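Private note to self, pasted from the team thread so I don't lose it. Backbone tokens:
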């Protein structure tokens, strides 16, 4: 079984930032699984049903430039609650998690559903307020005119929907290590995760 790092957690906790840095440091492939749900949600704006959208997803759909908006996040979380949508996306993610060179995936159900046998399972979190401030800064930088309060409400609504759904809910795997990055800089969070990955790699040889 190739090496797999599974990173889950609520919205804007810093999962992707840490995942990308660790993948690059250890030369592992990286998949942002949230993008699959964001692209599926965005395709429904064009009139496709969520299931048809998920089943017809292409690389071009993942490269759309409107996927990082608050609305795309909400659309993602709505389609992500539909079991048939999740089923349409599962094989691609499971195959990616088992790439021969090893992989890092981040999302909501990586340690619980996509790669339950991952050597490293992390649940990265931060307080609601910290996460809202971080995402707000990103959205403002990308030109979206939105207040911190609106971002906070958007994140909370999404986290609640993601945690309450029956299909692959957002929940730490029993054997996941929980890392609260509320008081950490990006460098500090990356360093801690890199140490965990390095130890896990050393333990398997
Ligand atoms: O992937 P996820 O939605 O969990 O979060 P992200 O997109 O990686 O991070 C959200 C924002 O928080 C980014 O702008 C990061 O630069 C910033 N941030 C962070 O990720 N970690 C910290 N310790 C501090 C800030
Ligand atoms: O970056 P952020 O954490 O805000 O969101 P994301 O990771 O891009 O995910 C967007 C939405 O997709 C989430 O709110 C979930 O509803 C859904 N998602 C999921 O259900 N399962 C995953 N493995 C990844 C994302």
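Design output:
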């Amino acid at each position: 079984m190739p090496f797999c790092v599974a990173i889950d957690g609520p919205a804007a906790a810093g999962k992707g930032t840490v995942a990308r840095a660790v993948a690059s440091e250890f030369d592992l492939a990286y998949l942002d699984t949230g993008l699959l749900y964001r692209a599926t949600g965005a395709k429904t704006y064009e009139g496709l049903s969520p299931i048809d959208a998920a089943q017809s997803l292409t690389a071009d759909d993942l490269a759309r430039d409107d996927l990082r908006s608050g609305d795309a996040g909400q659309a993602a979380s709505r389609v992500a609650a539909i079991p048939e949508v999740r089923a349409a996306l599962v094989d691609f993610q499971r195959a990616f998690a088992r790439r021969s060179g090893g992989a890092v995936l981040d999302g909501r159900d990586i340690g619980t559903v996509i790669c339950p046998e991952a050597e490293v399972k992390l649940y990265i979190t931060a307080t609601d307020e910290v996460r809202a401030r971080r995402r707000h800064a990103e959205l403002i930088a990308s030109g979206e005119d939105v207040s911190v309060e609106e971002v906070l409400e958007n994140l909370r609504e999404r986290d609640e929907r993601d945690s309450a759904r029956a299909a692959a809910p957002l929940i730490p795997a029993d054997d996941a290590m929980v890392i609260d990055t509320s008081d950490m800089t990006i460098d500090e969070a990356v360093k801690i995760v890199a140490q965990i990955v390095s130890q896990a790699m050393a333990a398997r040889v």
